Amino acid sequence: MGIARLDLAYHGGRFAGWETQAGQRTVQAALESALEQILGEPVALTVAGRTDAGVHATGQVASFEYSGKLPDSLANRLNGVLPRDIAVTAAAPDGDDFDARRSALARVYRYRVLASPVRDPFEQGRALWWRYPLDLGAMEQAAAAVVGKHDLTAFTPTRSAHSIFERNIDACSWEAEPRRPAVAGATMLALSVEAPAFMRSQVRVMVGTMLEVGGGRRSLDDFRSLLEGAPRERAGDTAPAHGLYLVGVRY
Questions:
Q1: Using 50, 70 and 90 to split pLDDT, how confident is the model at 158?
Q2: pTM here?
Q3: Which residues neighbour 123 within 8 Å (Cβ) at sequence distance 6 or greater?
Q4: Residues 7, 52, 85, 237: which is the catalytic one?
Q5: Residue 18 sits in a domain of what CATH number?
């Protein structure tokens, strides 16, 4: 038996998330079907981060056990049978103890916000369009407050499978992307968050709440108070899934 690593990118718009679900189109099911077609045996994938419906990935990692020898050019062969909204960017054997989920030290997510009075048709389904003025400096201060260990109960659904709500955030910051959007006067803002583990919807609720700070509807002091175990209803709305990307996994 061997263990292989897959590096993946996918557009989540037409998927019901990563994890296989009966009657739903999922990334895991599509990949496992393609692998079985090529390897001639069933494959069970382990993934670094289970993305929700509509969430994209540019740096996802998965692993699986296999018997025998991996085919040459496995990535190319997989890309030949996979749907066009999934790409395998690398596929190779890895160490015998590699596990895409358990071996990961940190995951990095990025949320993109198009700050513009007009829609950008080229960013439809790829970024949240925000037509209102934003104070980027205030949002940067909110992001800085998140770094460290906090009780993040306010940033995950009330009905949750989580039993531990303390999380350590290694890095969190807003920046303007260097590539200019197609619409004149628009700016693409992005929140990057790195942590060993995330709770469901955590980044999206953080974004929704930080946008309230940037729009002047919530003070920085109020935002900071949420990091002390405040209930979910005190935080802002959950930002839509289509602006969120899993951009990397650190091992």
A1: confident
A2: 0.95
A3: 112, 114, 129, 181, 182, 188
A4: 52
A5: 3.30.70.580
